[in-house]
Amino acid sequence: LRPAIIAMDGPAASGKSTVGYRLAALLDFLFFDTGVMYRAVTWVALARGVDIQDAEAVGRLAETVELDVRPPRAGEEDGRHCTVLADGEDITWQIRAPEVDRQVSVVSAMGRVRRALTVQQRRIGQAYGAGTQEKAGIVMVGRDIGTVVFPQAPLKLYIDASAEERARRRHRELLARGKAVSFEEVLADMVRRDRLDSERDLSPLRTAPDALVIDTTGLTPDQVLERILDLACARL
Ligand code: C5P
Predict the structure, then answer these.
(1) Residues 126-138: tens digit of each pLDDT
(2) CA of 116 to the centre of ligand 1 (A)
(3) Which ipTM did the prediction report?
């Protein structure tokens, strides 16, 4: 296996970070979740009282806030979550709050925000994808990794699942973290977010023409992983 960037895209709660994290661990690649960067900018904007509709102000924030995204802490339960610091403050769990879920698609549709974060993603991807760092490569997860951030990635995966299954997974996760939300609420928010992410003008969620599409509905993470490993070995 040569050093590489594996691009993994898909809608909310499709299983891409669970499977991406495990794939990265197996290959000794860095796992990097780009969604946390959009979430972090959103959370910081909300926390600092920046008007979330003000593209100039939020864009400026995205350019100036110092984001530090670190691999998930080993051994932690549900350990696929990257640790995220914004200007030195650990906001790993704050960025998973339902209010961030509701606002993040507004922020991620802003050109200035996307430009600022894409530059950082390319820098990290190029460093790790070349195999010059302590890892053998990188699994980068998001919405536009295979289409915009790294269109030349040798392996692109598009991870999907039915809306109901994805909402069930997210609902279970929120309940486990003590968030009292109804399934219907989670489903409605998720469908709305997917629509915004797919219909926006800039880097909308799309399947890259050369991506391998995997529907994880009804599959366990192990089964998905097995399928991906077969495909990865053939392509890398
Ligand atoms: O993957 P996750 O659900 O954490 O992503 C949160 C949001 O960040 C998405 O709904 C989307 O609006 C935005 N995002 C994006 N491009 C990426 C990753 C995430 O626009 N590469």
Answers:
(1) 999 888 888 989 9
(2) 14
(3) 0.99
Question: Ligand 1, atom 21: nearest CA belongs to which residue?
Answer: 142
8, β-bridge pairs:
141, 157
Query: Which tokens is 7 given?
Result: 């691009």
The verdict on the CB of residue 34 being under 6 Å from ligand 1 is yes
CA distance 189 to 223: 28
Q: What is the DSSP string of 133-190?
A: SSSS-EEEEESSIIIII-TT-SEEEEEE--HHHHHHHHHHHHHHTT----HHHHHHHH
Contacts of 234 (CB under 8 A, 6+ apart): none
Q: How far apart are CA 126 and CA 162, in angstroms?
A: 33
**Residue 128 and residue 208: Cα distance in Å, rounded?**
22
Q: What's the residue count for the chain? A: 236
